[in-house]
Design brief:
mainly beta, two-stranded antiparallel sheet, 2 strands, 57 residues, 0% helix
Amino acid sequence: MKGPYAVTDDKGSYTINNVPPGNYTVTAWQEMYGTQTQKVTVAAGKPGTADFTFKAK
């Protein structure tokens, strides 16, 4: 795993703290449904957001 990571809570929410401003690619992994990626921009003093939805195959 490269870079910081997070684990979801019981509701599927996650937070990655102390991320400097910039452009990032966030990858979510679920053991049964694989991976998804999204590009995220973090602006100075503002949070970035990436929402993932995994669907049963």
